[in-house]
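Take the subject:
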Amino acid sequence: MAKIRQPQQPPNDIALWSVGPLQTVSYGVINITPERLLSAYNNYLTRGRQIAFSWEHPDENAEPELRGAPAVCGLRLSEDGTRLDLVDISWTARAAGPVGRGEWPWISPEFVIDKEDLNYLCIEKIALTTNPETCGARPIIALSRVRGKAIMLAKTDDKSDATEEPEDGKLSIEEPESESK
């Protein structure tokens, strides 16, 4: 029997990246280093404004009803410099319902990496998507409930958060009644 997913509140904070390899569909493996996280954070501070979300990417091709930012957020670098979080996410009323119902299940960061300066990283925007570029991306709503902590959207080789994920590395939008192999 199929479960009916109950609407949830979209998350206020999401752990975006941790140090380690990030597997992407189009660009292969991108090594997320502490220096790249610091660069992304400093670029955010230099811009002096929140980061906008978009409906899918590229949003220039979006239908007229999907134009405009569904949310904005800030960035926070962890004290040890090994994790970058999206924080204080402010969802529009138009976005909160569909995100809460899982209609836009993933986010996909749009970012720039300088091939000559391997430490440079700049986040342009965060796209809501039904087809993320990040391999192993996990749904926003399921992950926002994991033990009430910030969540990871991409699996890394860093095992420090291993107790926060099932052994198979997968989470579903529905919370399982019990975890078994």
Notes: Residues 37 and 53 are 19 Å apart (CA to CA). The helical segments are 34-47, 93-100, 140-144. The first strand starts at residue 14 and ends at 18.
